[in-house]
Design goal:
heterodimer; A: mainly alpha; MetI-like fold; 2 domains; globular; disordered N terminus; B: 12 helices
Chain lengths: ~290, ~270
């Protein structure tokens, strides 16, 4: 009995001290995340279900029960879905070219990814308002090429919104895909070909599944960024395309309806959490 | 292997993507030299007068100063807290390290605007309403995830037994940390600092709910200028901010190499 109890007190202090040090190291970050992130979000949930008379679901009823606000939710989802789809269709093939590029070409291509990523969202959205004006470069180029005869109205249309959103969120799609494609061992594709797979078969049965983690990461990131974008819709389409994000801002900054704004915030948060949970689940699936 | 047609498609997409991404930045730079108050592109002449007008924008200097202060302080605090947390997570002595690592980076995936209103409610509830201080505390949540993500990735590649090796070779423990761990982690540290500074400096969705009439960050001012009266002065200001960003990127590329950033951004 004494023998069994002996080793523990000897080994315990060292382990305890290391564990204590580890806890001490994470404590400041824990305080920030718990106090300035998790706790306020819980409080927001509370604000969304109370009004002057106490507990109520009126804010959610208004949000989920009126056609106008269902349209607002759909606008947010539509912005997220279209941006994600277009960004993926451009990024996926481009990532393979980027992974094959060497030397100066690779540096130039990477710079075109990082520079916009580091540039201010407001600056880029402002640039698109200049580019897409009816006397802007895009219109004049299209006219010069004979594609259109008269300038078409682009700014404050859905086209402007999607072009701007794809432009701004594109780096978040291509970087995770590129990170995976760059590590892809070409021998897998060669082995598939040797074993008789057609190029199309190799793509769908070898390359696509192997690059799936990058796709999931990129899709989740771009969707959650674009579904909640605020600056882009504000500058590129404005009032006629209300989204959950613009509705939240309006409820707090203009209408002074914190309860309703909080409910809209909770819905947007629920969408973001669903995306994160889904992507975590998908990337954990066995291959 | 890939067929020829597929390879051509990949290259066309990559070049189109590069041009598409860089286009708005070039347009801003070109528009800032516009000789007329409208954005006359392609340029018919060149003028630098808009650059002179930047300092006369209403409330420009206080906003610039505020944004720089908030970005610098929040980045500095996050670098310390985030690096310590990343070390604890990487050493593997922390119970529930995986969950904690996820929690630390989770604000990156959450809508900024929702965080903004949540913080507004939270700060009001406890009577914490001084704009400068609320902005700083709020920006910690914006910058910490960038530091945590980059440092956790950087430390995952660091072999802690190297410190022991240095001690065996006669280094003291602090000496080992200073001469082995610090140089090995310096690139990650620099990238973490760079991206968290930019994330804070550019933030709009959180700041807008915490600012007041006298305390406005630069992005809030800029959006206001664009909505009120967009003229080439704003393009000039945007170009200067871009130029600052380019300098930061070039310096970090010289020090650590841009390709490292691609590796850590998963």
């Amino acid at each position: 009995m004494t023998e069994a109890a002996l080793p523990a007190p000897v080994a315990a202090p060292a382990v305890d001290r290391e564990r204590l040090a580890a806890i001490g190291f994470v404590l400041p970050s824990f305080v920030i995340i718990a106090g300035v992130f998790a706790l306020p979000l819980v409080l927001l949930l509370g604000v969304s279900v109370v009004d002057a008379n106490g507990l109520t679901f009126a804010h959610y009823k208004r949000l989920l029960g009126t056609p106008y606000y269902l349209g607002v939710i759909w606008n947010s989802l539509r912005l997220g879905l279209l941006t994600t789809l277009i960004a993926f269709l451009i990024s996926y093939p481009a990532a393979f070219a980027l992974a094959r590029a060497r030397g100066a070409l690779r540096s130039v291509l990477l710079a075109t990814l990082f520079l916009p990523l580091a540039a201010s969202v407001i600056v880029k959205a402002f640039a698109w308002t200049i580019l897409l004006r009816s006397d802007g470069i895009v219109n004049e180029t299209l006219i010069a090429l004979g594609i259109i005869e008269d300038p078409i109205r682009m700014i404050f249309t859905e086209t402007a919104l999607i072009v701007g959103a794809v432009n701004i969120f594109l780096p978040f799609m291509i970087l995770p895909i590129y990170a995976i494609v760059a590590q892809l061992d070409p021998r897998y594709a060669e082995a598939a070909a040797t074993l008789g797979a057609s190029p199309v078969g190799t793509f769908f049965r070898v390359i696509l599944p192997l690059t799936l983690p990058g796709i999931i990461a990129g899709v989740a990131l771009v969707f959650s960024l674009s579904v909640s974008a605020y600056v882009v819709p504000t500058l590129l389409i404005g009032e006629k395309y209300p989204t959950l994000a613009t509705t939240i801002a309006k409820a707090y900054l203009l209408a002074r309806e914190p309860g309703f704004g909080a409910a809209a915030g909770v819905v947007l948060l629920a969408i973001a959490i669903a995306v994160v949970a889904l992507s975590a689940r998908l990337s954990r699936e066995p291959k | 292997m890939m067929t020829r047609a597929a390879i051509i498609v990949c290259w066309v997409m990559a070049i189109a993507l590069a041009l598409f991404l860089i286009a708005p930045l070039l347009v801003i730079a070109a528009a800032s030299f516009s000789p007329t108050p409208v954005f006359d592109l392609p340029l018919t002449g060149a003028s630098t007068r808009w650059y002179g007008k930047i300092s006369r924008l209403d409330g420009f200097w206080p906003s610039l100063l505020l944004s720089l202060q908030i970005a610098l302080f929040s980045t500095a605090i996050s670098l310390v807290c985030g690096t310590l947390a990343a070390i604890a997570i990487a050493r593997g002595k922390l119970p529930g390290a995986g969950i904690f690592a996820t929690a630390l980076v989770s604000p990156l995936m959450m809508p900024g605007l929702v965080l903004g209103i949540a913080l507004l409610q939270g700060f009001r509830a406890i009577g914490f309403t001084a704009p400068w201080a609320t902005l700083l505390v709020a920006h910690l949540v914006i910058t910490l995830p960038y530091v945590a993500r980059t440092m956790i990735a950087g430390l995952a590649r660091f072999d802690f037994t190297l410190i022991e090796a240095a001690r065996t070779l006669g280094c003291t423990y602090p000496g080992g940390v200073l001469r082995v761990m610090v140089p090995a982690l310096a690139p990650s540290f620099l990238i973490a600092g760079l991206f968290s500074f930019l994330a804070s400096f550019d933030n709009y969705p959180v700041s807008i709910f915490l600012a007041d009439v006298r305390t406005k960050t630069l992005p809030i001012r800029m959006l206001q200028y664009i909505e009120e009266a967009p003229d080439p002065t704003l393009a000039a200001l945007s170009t200067l901010i871009l130029a600052g960003t380019v300098i930061l990127l070039v310096v970090s590329d010289r020090v650590v190499g841009l390709h490292r950033m691609a590796g850590t951004s998963d």
